[in-house]
Amino acid sequence: MARRAEVQTLSTFFLLVLLSDFDFELPQELIAQHPLATRSASRLLHCSEGGMRDRMFSELPELLRAGDLLVFNDTRVIKARLFGIKASGGKAEVLVERVSDMTDQGQRVLAQMRMSHIPQPGTTLYFENGVEARYIERAESFFVLEFNRPVLEVLEQQGCLPLPPYISHAADAEDDERYQTVFARQPGAVAAPTAGLHFDDTILARLRAVGIETATLTLHVGAGTFQPVRVENIAEHVMHVEHYEITESLVGQIQAARKRGGRVIAVGTTSLRALESATNEKGQLEAGNGETRIFITPGYRFRMVDVLLTNFHLPKSTLLMLVSAFAGMERIRIAYQHAVKQGYRFFSYGDAMLLEPAAATKRNSNEV
């Protein structure tokens, strides 16, 4: 497949919105620390131009239409957190962000490192069973490390699942299962595409039974998804890079959905970001793999996605800006106030929203 490079900042409204526009008060007790016993038992806030309705996620098949296409992100979260030591005996913690191809010299990764003092380039870190990683250089906010073993194998044997910073407990056996979607296939993410966590085999079967189709793409979610925006003028924020892949099969499924009058429903902001990154100016989805820094803020006109299923997001985050761009800033502000008042559960293990777009952001129905 052709390789695409999508590094544009797609927004037209930067000067009219500030970071403070995306802040809200969230009681600590509404941050979900554990998943519910059943994936599809979450609540669902349905937001459309007609208003808001409190629903259950199990009602999703009733809220969609026969012929609609749900697009999932099939990335799989890797056990990206690794603990080792320096030659001095000091502790070293590594969070692998991205894995490169294996070479004769080893396998390089982009990673975050946590230790008392960052070592000099050329320093070796030591892990269990003879695994070593040499620190090569800095790469923006990351460190380049070169392992002497295949990294995914090392992580599977020695690594820990990297839960989000707002979850207070260390990953356990429950998290190993529930912080993955049931359709996770492609290893490479360090955070789950959390809107997909609500789906189980039962609800997938119910969706198929009423004529709703499903498809997958891959976007490997990076740790940057939790990176706060630290500048008041959001035009100055630099987005993190994430790798995605769009298959020819997905392109064909979307074309077929359009022809039958179905809607493209992104399951999660990660699916939306991949779809919008791979859509050209004519509104055509292009197959291939590439990297995206796409930064969607109010003023962006969506070219591919008709409906968005998503969780509730962090204050002042790029994802809150994205959903505000999709559904409208005022509607999202009111929806979040409602969710807090009604005790919805927030963030990765929390409840969901089904968002229909604001009129100004809707895709042109003549685009295919």
Encode the helix/strand succession as letters.
EEEHEEEEEEEEHHEHEEHEHEEHHE
Count up the helices. Answer: 8
Mean pLDDT: 92
Name the CATH superfamily assignment of the largest domain: QueA-like
Q: Beta-strand percentage?
A: 25-35%
Strand tally is 18
Query: Would you identify the regions where 5 or more consecutive residues have pLDDT less than 50?
Result: 1-15
Overall body shape: globular
CATH class category name of the largest domain: Alpha Beta
Rounded radius of gyration (Å): 21 Å
Largest sheet data? 10 strands, mixed
Class by alpha and beta content: alpha/beta
Head-to-tail CA distance between termini? 21 Å
Going by CATH, the architecture of the largest domain would be 3-Layer(aba) Sandwich
Spatial strand order of the main sheet: 1-16-14-13-4-15-17-18-2-3
**Overall structural domain count:** 2
CATH topology grouping of the largest domain: QueA-like
> Helical residue percent?
10-25%
Summarize the structure.
The protein is of the alpha/beta class and 368 residues long. It has 8 helices and 18 strands. The radius of gyration is 21 Å and the shape is globular.
Explain what you see.
There is one protein chain. By secondary structure, this protein is an alpha/beta fold. The chain folds into 2 domains: 3-77 and 173-361, QueA-like (3-Layer(aba) Sandwich); 81-158, QueA-like (Thrombin, subunit H). Helices cover 19% and strands 27% of the residues. The chain contains 8 helices and 18 strands. The strands form 3 sheets. The protein has a 10-stranded mixed β-sheet, with helices on one face. A 6-stranded antiparallel β-sheet has the order 6-7-8-11-10-9, with helices on one face. It has a two-stranded parallel ribbon with strand order 5-12. A hairpin with a 4-residue loop joins strand 7 and strand 8. Helix 7 (318-327) crosses helix 8 (329-341). The chain starts with a strand and ends in a 13-residue tail after the last strand.
